[in-house]
Write a structure and sequence with these properties.
Structural class: alpha+beta
């Protein structure tokens, strides 16, 4: 006969594990969702990358990247809340299981085939390389499976009506946040171009994280090849090697800002412009993504910025032949330089957008809805 005390202890241990898994998964889903809800446009760029021909080959989904991003991040937050309050257990746990199963496959695919360098799980707040993200998803998958097979051990914290109200109010708040950050800018800026950043300093490599090299020393022992790897020194007591080859074991960490340059007619003007006293960048990363309302405000902003002593220049990934008709249509004229489109859409989540600098330090950023209120 089974010892009742042992059975009771096992039951308590399992309930404790289930409770821990509920809180860990629920809080992590809410945190992850809110981080991405702070910047749904940035998450949509990541989905667009996943849908591209180079990764999943789902190009037909790329036009829906933004609405899908908004739905996913809000659903992620709501699922976390539903799990914590124990609402609609079967729907919640099946949704969590399907979602984490999909993302576990996605992160494994990205990591194994080296397709995407950052999964975007926590936006720009906590960058994760694909293998780190895959490991995180595996842990979550195990915890969700524990919850799945132990649904009888977690109950609803509130009556159905009260739980429904909590979910409804939470959903409305999430949509309000999404609308606000899309119409203005992310509430919290975790990106490399946040206000106060010295662009020139951020473009420099971190000397504490250089390339790490391995040296492969080749020997012939009893007619067979033997390889000994060191960090540079000849293996102790083994001077008679046949050859040595060098390889990178770990590449140096990229600077916080990389691939940023300001060019025109094949010449690089980056340093010259960063050295200027006051510059206002008008950023148009892609003419096909332009918001008409923002273009209508550029002429008045340009006049105001120039009156405040700023040199106003345009940055775009498009050629001048695409930009000149726009300037003519909206009655503003500024010199345009070429800059990598990824850097532009990373700097400010708006098209068009404005970023001001003083001696290379970012002093202000503005969504086109807020051009009039940008302090100069």
């Amino acid at each position: 006969m089974a010892n009742p005390y042992i059975c009771l202890n096992k039951e308590k241990s399992m309930k404790g594990l289930v409770t821990f898994c509920r809180w860990f998964v629920g809080v992590l889903f809410i945190f992850s969702g809110l981080i991405k809800l702070n910047d749904p446009l940035g998450f949509s760029y990541k989905l667009d990358e996943y849908f591209s021909a180079a990764v999943l080959g789902l190009e037909f989904l790329q036009p829906f990247a933004l609405p899908l991003a908004i739905f996913l991040v809000i659903f992620e937050v709501i699922l976390g809340i539903m799990l914590l309050i124990g609402f609609q257990r079967k729907f919640t746990i099946w949704s969590l299981l399907l979602m984490i199963g999909f993302f576990t496959f996605l992160t494994f695919y990205s990591a194994y085939f080296d397709k995407v360098t950052d999964c975007g799980c926590f936006g720009d707040a906590i960058p994760l390389v694909p293998w780190e993200s895959f490991a995180k998803d595996v842990v979550l998958l195990v915890m969700i499976l524990i919850l799945f097979f132990n649904m009888d051990k977690w109950k609803s914290a509130f009556a159905k009506a009260k739980s429904s109200i909590i979910i409804l109010v939470s959903t409305i708040i999430c949509f309000i946040i999404a609308y606000y950050v899309l119409m203005h800018l992310p509430i919290l800026d975790f990106r490399a171009y946040k206000v106060g950043t010295d662009i020139e300093v951020a473009m420099q490599e971190d000397p504490s994280q250089p390339d790490i090299y391995g040296y492969d020393w080749y020997y012939t022992v009893d007619g067979k090849e033997e390889i000994i790897t060191t960090d540079g020194q000849v293996p102790e007591g083994r001077p008679g090697y046949d050859k040595v080859e060098t390889r990178i074991i770990q590449e140096a960490a990229l600077p916080k800002i990389h691939d940023f340059s300001i060019e025109k007619d094949g010449e690089d003007y980056t340093q010259e412009i960063l050295d200027k006293e006051k510059v206002a960048f008008v950023m148009i990363y892609d003419v096909s993504k332009i918001e008409e309302g923002g273009m209508e405000k550029l002429a008045s902003f340009t006049t105001r910025a120039q009156a405040a002593g700023y040199e106003v220049i345009g940055l775009s990934a498009n050629g001048i032949e695409q930009l000149e008709p726009l300037m003519k249509s909206y009655d503003f004229s500024i010199p345009f330089y070429t800059t990598d489109g990824t850097q532009l859409k990373t700097a400010v989540r708006s098209t068009p957008a404005v970023m001001t600098i003083k001696k290379g330090v970012v002093t202000g950023k503005s969504h086109w809805n807020d051009f009039e209120s940008l302090s100069l």
